[in-house]
Amino acid sequence: MQANDEIGNGKEMSLEVLRVNKRKKPRNEVDEKDAVEQEKEMKKLESFLFGNIYAPVEFGKEVEEGDAVDNDSSLFFVDRSANSVLSVDEDDGQVLEEEPKQRKAVWEDDEEAKANVNIAKVNRLRKLRKEEDESLISGSEYVSRLRAQHVKLNPGTEWAQLDSEPRNNKYSDDESSDDEDRAVVARGYKDVGAVDDLLRTNEDFVVKSSSKLLPGLLEYSILTDANAEEPSSGPINSVQFHRNAQLLLTAGLDRRLRFFQIDGKRNAKIESIFIDDCPIRKAAFLPDGSQVIIAGRRKFFYSFDLVKAKVDRIGPLVGREEKSLEVFEVSPDSSTIAFVGNEGYILLVSTKTKKLIGTLKMNGTARSLAFSEDGKQLLSSGGDGQIYHWDLRTGACFHKAVDEGCINGTSLCTSPNGKLFAAGSDSGIVNIYNREEFLGGKRKPIKTVENLTTKVDFLKFNTDSQILAICSSMKKNSLKLVHVPSLTVFSNWPPQKKTLHYPRCLDFSPGGGFMAMGNAAGKVLLYKLHHYHDA
């Protein structure tokens, strides 16, 4: 009996233990669920504060619902670099390419976006333009360009420049300062390169990178006279740069042909040649740079060989009784010299044999000539007020038309790009024509320049056809520079503080950086054009 009682008590105790265990089991499950929820909440809060650090999202994959994090976490990110960089996934080491991100300013003025600034109206703001016809810009764009202009004018000192070695660590602490510089310099500008390269250079950021010359004001500096070492005792009739841009030719009525090495400072004289029986009316290099053709009011002319340093007298031309060969032009291919002859004749002479190879005949007197850019055609004008176009391969005049408002044509010039030509008359009018439209039948010039009041003696386009120089030797300071793209005259030329005297000839260096002007006082004035970096 006692044994049975012990057995019964044991069963009751085991049943009690089972009941207690059953009661504990639900409690443990609740505790585990609470712990899981707390852990998820902690991860959620940490992700909210520090980003998605436990389960980084891969590009191109959607986040599962169970692992999704609040969208507000995307507001916080680590800006690792201003450029596109490679980031490493902490879990699987996968390399991900990040898009470049630009930090926003902490505070922006709402009034900047509403305001408009006219940068074309005020002279000192014109340098901020990126296009020549640009005028109104927004206030924020105006602020951005002012900052860029400040960086341009204050590039910094050498000791403050970063080292030239590229930084391998893209996650350095000073990335924020680079990003701030990027926001200031690059805002509103196209094709800005890598920020590191941009901030390590002192090159210009605006305007001059586009190679477009802006109208209005011409930026230039007055340099030492080109012939300061040996001025001419008579009027200068010819100045021309050699194709190497360092050698300048000057010639005039003192019968001397001089060569100077142009550096803008000393301008050393290289050689001086005296032509005994010919006051020089014009001298010009052959485009290949091998010879100089010298002519005056004589029935013969001279050729100076630069290599042999030898002067040869040529003429009179066989079959012609000319009194003067002082007006001539050399073809761009250095094959032909065209002289203005008597009674409307144009004489074509070979540069190799120096023999007459052909003649052209105008209806009126011939006064001025100009070759096309390829040397296959010749333009001429004169006493009948018409402009002739000649095909030198056939010797035929294939086009003839009246120069609008012209009675006597005195000068001609074609642009190096072949698109334009300019014609001057004895009334001081200069007409600029589109050559293709003129040959197509349109007689109206695209621009009539009326800034001169006396006979136009000289016309010259610069190398890139953005500047046209027009001058008259009959009046002091009678030299104007025309901005060809806008067809307007530069308002700050000629210089007010320095007289040009009576200008007679002018030339631009091959790179456009120098401009030389000869006057009746025997001086060759030299200027540096800041827009052009090369001589």
Average of per-residue pLDDT values:
81
Low-confidence stretches: 56-76, 80-93, 164-192
What does the overall shape look like? elongated
User: How many strands appear in the DSSP assignment?
Assistant: 32
Strand order of the largest sheet: 5-32-31-30
Radius of gyration: 40 Å
- Report, as a whole number of angstroms, the end-to-end distance: 129 Å
Assembly type of the shown chains? single chain
Q: Tell me the major beta sheet.
A: 4 strands, antiparallel
Helix content: 10-25%
Task: Look at the helices and sheets and give the structural class.
Answer: alpha+beta
- Please count the helical segments: 6
**How much of the residues is beta strand, in percent?**
25-35%
